[in-house]
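Run log // design_07
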């Protein structure tokens, strides 16, 4: 082999080798992942708080290696699975006990029962609403600045992270849909969507001011299809869902798309991505039961009864309790969400 052949070998293949080694060695696609949200992502932040939105008991966690951790289903939640898809070898730590070393790779601020509006979470006691999650993030940033030596180094690190934000489920489920169905609602669906989006806009700008640049913002799912809605209002004619609820929630998503577009137009270097975790042509795989909860649910709050029964064929169920998807459903949702999020890390493959 001549020297020049050798050189070719070196220079053509090294970039590929570097990428390949990064993936094989388990280097994540991004250095850090910060998660804001509600019970769909909460990984234990509520368990030492005075709230009814707390599920650190069996059968929750029945399929999770560590058992019940405060996650609101039988196994991994969507944030756990997205972290795996991003290549993290450990789940992102909950804010409640993230260590100084943990915070460099991100923090999960999620809190079951929380909302965009502060009054939403109050219905469940002491949960962490989006405003307070942002305050917690600012505490983490101070710790990070201390660790890295300065605020500007911390900001540089924070600009490379991916952020996921999923809020609004409880603003609708606990704070609006019941009134809407009572027909004495003081606000039209559009008025309520506008109120939420105005608040959300301030909150997402605050996250940007805190150094976030790559942000996946989750659309709301079809809340009219969850067991709690079906039990409360009954399926609409010709549908397996409560279509009035779906239509109300759809207003939020339409307004959210406009907000994302505005944020991208007005904030320098911002990359906000409208992210969905469902698709119209999705395959439900082995999931055949799309309407019944897998666990025995409480008639009072729709959560699994502590120590109660759970179905044995959990991979065949879409819903774990009256509100939350099973791990099997989360696996499908996370892959769809991940593909929506991919513009946020496509340009940062292996080298950061
Ligand atoms: C904090 O970490 C410990 C040990 O890793 C774990 O047992 C505990 O449940 C965690 N607390 C929360 C709130 O997640
Ligand atoms: C927990 O919250 C409930 C309802 O808000 C309140 O009545 C109770 O005193 C609180 N308990 C503690 C220990 O703070
Ligand atoms: C469903 O259809 C039945 C029969 O056509 C009708 O009486 C009922 O009012 C309809 N319910 C709704 C919610 O539209
Ligand atoms: C469906 O179930 C079969 C049999 O348990 C399993 O081999 C397969 O991987 C499952 N498919 C999906 C998409 O989960």
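design_07 sequence
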């Amino acid at each position: 082999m001549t020297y020049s052949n050798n050189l070719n070998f070196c220079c053509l293949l090294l970039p590929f080798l570097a990428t390949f080694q990064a993936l094989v060695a388990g280097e994540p696609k991004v250095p850090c992942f910060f998660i804001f949200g509600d019970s769909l992502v909460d990984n234990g932040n509520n368990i030492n708080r005075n709230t009814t939105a707390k599920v650190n008991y069996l059968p929750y966690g029945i399929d999770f290696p560590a058992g019940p951790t405060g996650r609101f289903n039988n196994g991994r939640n969507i944030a756990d699975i997205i972290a795996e898809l991003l290549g993290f070898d450990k789940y992102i730590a909950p804010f409640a006990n993230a260590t100084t070393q943990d915070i460099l790779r991100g923090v999960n601020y999620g809190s079951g029962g929380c909302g965009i509006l502060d009054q939403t979470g109050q219905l469940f006691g002491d949960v962490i609403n989006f405003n307070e999650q942002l305050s917690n993030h600012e505490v983490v940033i101070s710790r990070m600045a201390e660790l890295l030596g300065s605020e500007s180094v911390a900001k540089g690190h924070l600009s490379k992270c991916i952020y996921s934000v999923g809020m609004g489920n409880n603003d609708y489920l606990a704070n609006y849909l019941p009134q809407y169905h009572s027909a004495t609602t003081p606000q039209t669906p559009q008025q309520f969507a506008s109120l939420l989006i105005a608040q959300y806009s301030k909150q997402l700008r605050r996250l940007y001011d805190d150094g976030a640049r790559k942000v996946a913002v989750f659309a709301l799912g079809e809340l009219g299809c969850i067991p709690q809605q079906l039990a409360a209002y009954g399926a609409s004619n010709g549908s397996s869902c409560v279509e009035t609820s779906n239509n109300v929630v759809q207003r939020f998503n339409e307004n959210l798309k406009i907000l994302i577009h505005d944020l991208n137009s007005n904030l320098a270097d911002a990359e906000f991505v409208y992210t969905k975790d469902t698709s119209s042509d999705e395959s439900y795989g082995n999931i055949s039961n799309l309407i019944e909860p897998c666990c025995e649910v409480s008639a009072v709050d729709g959560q699994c009864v502590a120590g109660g029964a759970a179905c044995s064929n959990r991979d065949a169920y879409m819903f774990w309790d009256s509100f939350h998807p099973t791990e099997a459903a989360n696996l499908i949702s996370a892959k769809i969400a991940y593909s929506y999020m991919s513009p946020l890390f496509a340009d940062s493959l292996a080298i950061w």
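The longest strand covers residues 33-37.
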